[in-house]
Write a structure and sequence with these properties.
mainly alpha; disordered N terminus
Amino acid sequence: MASQPPTEGSLDGPETYHAWYAMINATIPRDLWKYVDPDTENEFEEPEDITFDSIRPGATTLRELTAAEKTQYASLRNVYKNNLTQYQRYLTEEAKLRTKILSSIAEAKRSMLRAETSVRTWISNLQTATKPTDAQMKTIVRARHRILLGTKYIEWPTGGPEKWTTEWQKLMTDCERWCPAIYEDWAGDFNLVWGEVPEARRICDRLVEALTDGGIEEWDTFRATRELRQAWDQKSIRSGMKVGGKGRVTRAAFAAQPRFDGSNSEEQQEIINPEPSTTTLTVDRTRTRSTSRKRSGTDSTQQEGFQRGQKKTRTCWGCAGPHIDFKCPLITNYNPTKMRIPNDWQETFDRKMSDRAFERKVNVIRDANKIRKELAMDPEIRTGKE
């Protein structure tokens, strides 16, 4: 049978002992913890019943007591009932704690927990077998720090930063207790991991400014985590991710055929969507070159290369859609035919736009279209054509 992954608050070894102990401590009410605390010897004894014989030896009915004894009996009886209620409450909470301990430890450790022994003995046995020394905890925390800080992001992880921030918060809590020197450099570690993610770069720059100007006291790990999550949420909204359980598609389309500076729609179509044969831009089209001249190799190899080349000529390098690059509504930012833009095209294009080289290439194409428009609008050039 496959082993189950460790659950939250489970006692898997010395590295999880302190978190497990804190969880066990929080399971039972605070006023009852002293009766199971392995560092104390307090015992919750079952209260002794109060009877008529307790007030007057040999008495079996209330009539046999005097008025003063009846008052004393009533008072002691109330105290007994209150103590009995608390004792029953303790037994209930102790039973819950036993169940919690059994569910949070491995099967191999259950042999140390005998049913006839108290919960205090259970915790004491687990403490003796598992609790690490201070030196061991420092080594464990440093190892966790090396592992978590060993990953540097240049773009957002698929599910966002939630998993990383959760682990980081736990690590910083332990560092504050066991490795204060590592905890004091939390801002540097944060910048090291997230400094190159576009939407998170501003947060890192502000942290550097706070360190330089002496205003780091206004920051802590919780604020840095909160602002990182906010940056992720804003990025998700801008990229049109799921809202209310449904995908949102951002359409870069005009409601009607646009006109710029007096040019008609036919001229604008030529300006925005230039044919590849007339453009002066240098574009990699090595995949569409003629295959009439054979090269070295078998016919089947050349045929496979031709098919691969044909397939790539139908894929837009901007959004991976099946259309020509210069007619892509996302690259040209112009969609006169009101082409439907699927969500995966938009996400692919937005992700590529985070690359500066790709962004420059798109801007060059858009600037070229703008220049062609201006040239088309130049009266001298138009007269010369006529």
